[in-house]
Amino acid sequence: MSKNALIDKLVTLVKPIVSGLNYELYHLEFVKEGNENYLRIYIDKETGGISLEDCEKVSRAVSEMLDVEDPIVEAYYLEVSSPGIDRTLYTEEHLQKYVQSKILVKLSGLLDGKKKYEGELIAFDSEELKINSEGHEVSIPRSKVSSVNLRGEL
């Protein structure tokens, strides 16, 4: 099974469990680091932060399902956590939720001599992100974006 197919299957299996516990499946990834495989599940909720108890509850429920369904053939570690205050914005829904929030955009190449921009997300579409950076509106082509992170403030 391809990695993308595995991720799709895992999302299909994990999302109802996470939703059933009243959390949002923010992101899921299956990565190899060194000789170890990790299934990382990031959860969120509408109000308040994610606690250690929240992560434990989701981890137990997902672990039970994975033991039964057994979709991953190789050995792996299961990690459940919050996406964090400086969370990566992966989807259109994530971007929409954080319009008018401060973000950090890292680029795959230079744009006007810079590899990263920080500012308030004003708008976005399939072609570009528009941010207010140091009082100037900057249009960043989506094709140059390598990652977008929320710049959380406590």
Automatic annotation (TrEMBL):
Residue ranges of every copy of the Ribosome maturation factor RimP C-terminal domain listed in the record: 89-153
Keyword Nucleus assigned: no
One Gene Ontology cellular component: cytosol
Primary site of residence: cytoplasm
Domain of life of the native organism: Bacteria
Location within or outside the cell: Cytoplasm
Keyword vocabulary terms for this entry: Cytoplasm, Ribosome biogenesis
The Ribosome maturation factor RimP N-terminal domain, residue ranges: 13-86
GO BP, sorted A to Z: ribosomal small subunit assembly; translation
Pfam families the record matches: DUF150_C, RimP_N
Keyword hit for ATP-binding: no
Protein family: Belongs to the RimP family.
Stated role: Required for maturation of 30S ribosomal subunits.
NCBIfam families hit by this protein: PRK00092.3-1 (NF000934)
Protein name, per record: Ribosome maturation factor RimP
